[in-house]
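in:
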């Protein structure tokens, strides 16, 4: 038996709103099954369960904002179905505080560290057994500091609300999210129809990119790649395929990049408190522009092991779901390196900003005819600018140059991709 908690929502997000439960108490679930939809500042994501079992309790009601690490449900063998949990189960019973709204007896002061989850406040949250305890609301606080849950304190800070003007209804009189709602303290309502806040998305992107440029010592490299061989091979391949099965150059770029990442694992992984940890697989993220503004970077699992047709299908599906809804949380948080491509916008060269905790961003510009030196002469050939933004804490320019050269070599022999 274990609690299923709100998983990490990425380096730039520390809380999400539970939009919908997709299971009920008593349902059998399997590892990888989507059991809930969670709204972040970037998108509504499907959340998968990480083990097989039976849903014995649902702790959090739909519509509740929940911090990362908060218990959402209990997964067991079915023997504990119906037993009490941190919250009312299946919508029955009296209203009590959810884990994301319940502060500790001494609520930790929330300190902003860009967009990283507030570990101090998470460590001081109530345990499931404590969360159901009887609530009492004292008239004053001896400490002189207004107690509030991490989520409520964060919302109040965003909205510029003075917590001392609000009477809390949580344990020990602490202010929780519902108190802010009653006081009109929420900065803005969630758009109708399940959409997400574009302004908040920009703020989230700004925080992540500011953190990246402040903490990560970037270095940049660029090279121009002759695409003559890739262009000829692609034209021949597509000539024998129905329109629905034809490939784009993007598939070749992604596969070549993934194979190069597998060859140079120093650029494929995450940098955290323990330093750099190379990933065991290549999950290449793709920066996708969203209609109306903003972007997300969902990842394709095991990119280096997919055939070009499989990769093309996965890429098209990912873009469709990124713009229309249905991305999984694992696709948003599982990337080990990311590609950004702006060639379709007429940009010759793009230099990316590394998305933490990753250590590399690969930029792909516009493929266009250019004069190139070929065999002692000059020829007009299709070419593209490739760039690399890499973390100097992990590797130096020498390795970065080898990495870009590896991508170029693969693009010179597309039949091997």
């Amino acid at each position: 038996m274990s609690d299923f908690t709100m998983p990490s929502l990425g380096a730039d997000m520390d809380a999400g709103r539970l939009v919908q439960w997709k299971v009920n108490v008593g349902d059998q679930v399997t590892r990888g099954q989507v059991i809930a939809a969670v709204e972040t500042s970037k998108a509504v994501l499907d959340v998968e369960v990480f083990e097989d079992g039976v849903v014995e309790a649902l702790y959090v009601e739909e519509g509740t904002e929940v911090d990362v690490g908060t218990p959402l449900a209990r997964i067991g063998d079915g023997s504990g179905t119906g037993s009490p949990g941190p919250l009312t189960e299946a919508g029955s019973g009296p209203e009590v505080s959810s884990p994301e709204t319940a502060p500790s007896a001494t609520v930790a002061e929330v300190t902003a560290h860009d967009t990283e989850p507030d570990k101090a406040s998470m460590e001081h949250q109530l345990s499931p057994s404590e969360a159901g305890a009887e609530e009492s609301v004292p008239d004053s606080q001896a400490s002189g500091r207004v107690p509030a849950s991490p989520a409520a304190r964060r919302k109040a800070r965003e909205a510029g609300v003075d917590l001392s003007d609000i009477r809390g209804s949580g344990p020990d009189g602490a202010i929780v999210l519902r108190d802010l709602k009653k006081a009109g303290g929420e900065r803005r309502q969630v758009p109708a129809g399940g959409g997400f806040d574009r302004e908040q998305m920009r703020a989230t992107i700004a925080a992540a990119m500011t953190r990246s440029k402040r903490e990560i010592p970037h270095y940049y490299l660029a090279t121009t790649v002759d695409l003559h061989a890739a262009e000829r091979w692609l034209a021949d391949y597509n000539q024998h395929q129905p329109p629905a099965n034809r490939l784009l150059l993007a598939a070749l770029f992604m596969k070549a990049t993934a194979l190069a990442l597998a060859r140079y694992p120093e650029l494929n992984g995450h940098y955290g408190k323990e330093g750099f940890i190379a990933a065991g697989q290549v999950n290449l993220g793709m920066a996708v522009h969203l209609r109306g503004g903003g972007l997300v970077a969902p990842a394709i699992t095991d990119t280096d092991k997919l055939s070009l047709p499989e990769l093309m299908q996965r890429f098209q599906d990912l873009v469709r779901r990124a713009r229309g809804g249905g991305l999984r949380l694992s696709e948003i948080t599982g990337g080990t390196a990311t590609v950004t491509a702006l060639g379709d916008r007429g940009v010759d060269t793009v230099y990316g900003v590394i998305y933490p905790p990753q250590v590399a961003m690969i930029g792909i510009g516009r493929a266009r005819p250019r004069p190139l030196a070929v065999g002692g002469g000059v020829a007009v050939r299709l070419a593209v600018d490739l760039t690399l933004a890499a973390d100097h804490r992990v590797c130096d320019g020498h390795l970065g140059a080898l990495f870009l050269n590896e991508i170029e070599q693969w693009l010179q022999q597309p039949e091997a991709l």
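note: Residues 86-143, 185-194 have pLDDT under 50 and may be disordered.
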